[in-house]
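Supplementary Note 2. Why include the ligand at all?

Several targets in our set were suspected to adopt different conformations when bound, so apo predictions alone were not considered sufficient. For every target with a known small-molecule partner we therefore ran a joint prediction. The input for coenzyme a persulfide is given below.
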Amino acid sequence: MDFALSDEQLLLQDTARKFAEAEIKPAAAAFDQSGEFPREIIKKAWETGLASTGIPEEYGGVGLTLMDSCIVTEALSWGCAGMTTSIMANDLGIMPVVVGGNESQQKEWLERFASEFCLVAFCLSEPNAGSDVAGLQLLAEKDGEDYILTGTKCWITNGGEADYYTVFATLDRASRHKGIVAFVIPSDLDGISLGKKEDKMGQRASDTRTINFDGVRVPAANRLGAEGEGFKVAMRTLDRTRPSIGALACGIAQRALDESVAYAQERKAFGFPIAGFQAVQFMLADMAKNLEAARLLTLQSAWLIDQGQNASKYSSFAKCFSTDTAMEVTTDAVQVFGGNGYTKEYPVEKLMRDAKLMQIYEGTNQIQRLVIARELLKE
Ligand code: COS
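The joint prediction is reproduced in token form.
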């Protein structure tokens, strides 16, 4: 077992760290406050080879392994989780084409996503179907060779900014998962309209939207996989993207730890730096210990996927443990900062707000525990 990163991985990590330090971190507080979308920063990340990294090289993409992409994601998220979610959500939007598209669809769409700067949003969740994917209601009615999509998607990351969508719909609501079908479409088709942008607690630099589909005509050529295979396309996509959420959470936790270690050495109480008190030392030690465990689980799950193994359970381990850890570590960071930590003068309250979303999106941590338990019982 070799835990060392290769020279190429170290170089990649260094590039991502420098980008986070120079481009993301200085802008993070302003975008958090305004809730504006950092399109130019994301475009620059794409130009640097740090976005849409999952598109294979044969289609003109960067072609990073999932493990390499997790290394990049953690480094970027250290700068700002909201911006990194916008970058990551693009890979999530692209992934259904990678796992569900046939050869000619992959060539057409992946080459397009790799050759121009564009954003792709993953449209799965609905007002009444978040955790229960099989219960989704967006209807796909057959009309000759086309499908007509009618319904509403919500909580769609990059929904208001994306140029393309991967969309999941049902041919027959009563059939639950067996009726689901996936499509890849441009976001400007007739009948598509945007709902409100969510005013979120954290990760405010990411765009989260409702999208309405009112009789949207989609040719059969845009269908990914066979009719009824859409549910599995969604599940296989999430298996491959949840390690990246673990990496994003590690980036938040690393930043919280770095800020806490620095602050604890500067801030004095009872005449001494608070880093000299065991009460603070033990908090820092737990933060570092749990972060290291989260990082190892994340990289292991990514590595298993890169080896072509079925890693549903490990993806859920990584997503669940790392995001719970980020929540704990950022909460402790606010505690180390005391009253200062609770103000916007210092960076840790943002980290805590950003961390909370991690336990909710890409499958709540309750759903991750469900996936783990089902895999255990199957075994
Ligand atoms: N890969 C491939 N196939 C899978 C799979 C996976 N990871 N997970 C399930 N399947 C298959 C099952 O094998 C089953 O196939 P058959 O019909 O051939 O037997 C089918 O899919 C249905 O599976 P299951 O019965 O487990 O589905 P459930 O409706 O019980 O739902 C959960 C499973 C809850 C795990 C799923 O709905 C889920 O992941 N929900 C969270 C969604 C989410 O993450 N939302 C966030 C949106 S993205 S920001």
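Strands lie at 120-123, 139-143, 146-157, 164-170, 180-186, 192-197, 208-219, 223-224, 268-269, 272-273. The first helix runs from residue 7 to 34. Comparable summaries for the other entries are listed in the accompanying table.
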